[in-house]
Amino acid sequence: MKIAQIAPLAERVPPKLYGGTERIVSYLTEELVRQGHDVTLFASGDSLTTARLVPCSDMALRLDPAVEDYVPYHIVMLDAVRRRADDFDVLHFHIDLWHYPLVRDFADRTVTTLHGRLDLPDLKPLYTVFSEIPLVSVSDAQREPMPPVTWVGTVHHGLPRDLLPYVARPQGDYLAFLGRISPEKRPDRAIEIAVRAGLPLRIAAKVDRVDRAYWHDVIAPMIEAHPNVRFLGEIGEGEKATFLGNARALLFPIDWPEPFGLAMIEAMACGTPVIAFRHGSVPEVVMDGVSGFIVDSVEEAVHAVRRIGMLDRSRVRASFESRFTAEHMALRYVSIYRALPGLRAAAEGRRRDGGDVGLQVVA
């Protein structure tokens, strides 16, 4: 199958540091190639892939000091995609809503994975107009705020099976927080939980420009007040294995409708259980009492920290392997691709003409 993957340009694929969407695009692209598909990746020019790369900017826009506005670069990329659209059986978009007006005449062989939150009021009029665009959610919970649209599936994120090694006996005795410093991620809760549980907390997180006031006014003073709390900043892929694998647990104390939460399955891949608040995708990802604990308050989270030793880290890893590998993710997407009306129509046309359908899944 000839597949186009269209990625955001803010980060390279895969990102050097933070960047959940670009990371998933990379894992999916590489696994599709491994399964034998002909994949073309539209992404920043510094991206690393075994697929055919179409560079749409010199480098990740977030890392280019000369770039102030991301919009022009995405418009140029969409023009390149539009001109080459007939080269592909399926076009898979990961750029939210930019492409909808451009793909209407071939929307039936496109898939758009929505990676972000969907409870914003301005999205409803948009999706009322573009209700025919085939959409994939990354959790069932993510769909709840949306008007009637064309959902073609839910696909949970997946990681390469060997990306993060299983750690049976962690060398550290700390709690971990991984992600962004932002009000909805609630690092303040993580600090409170760790302090009340009497354990060190290590925070590996980025601070976006929009969250700098929150960092300076709320989080930095809390860190200064508690010597057992260490802020490590942004960490790269190579550092995650040690950071997550040696933690007693990952704290995921969110206060928003999290669409998925990649940090949860990264921790699970290491065998590290997750203590997460019951919002968004959490009940779909964490198996309560197996791969972690789902809580509704700081008090419950502190109690869960004290019970974390009851969990078997091998079962945490097994939960990851059975549900959240890149192989599972790619096979699910291929199933969705094959069911698209435009793809089925093309296959039927080739059968009538006596040609090779060429749309079989290569496992």
TrEMBL record:
It comes from the Bacteria. Signal peptide: none annotated. It holds the Pfam family Glyco_transf_4. InterPro entries: Glyco_trans_1, Glyco_trans_4-like_N. Residues 18-119 form the Glycosyltransferase subfamily 4-like N-terminal domain. Residues 173-308 form the Glycosyl transferase family domain. Gene3D superfamilies: Glycogen Phosphorylase B (3.40.50.2000). This is Glycosyltransferase family 4 protein. It comes from Chelatococcus albus.
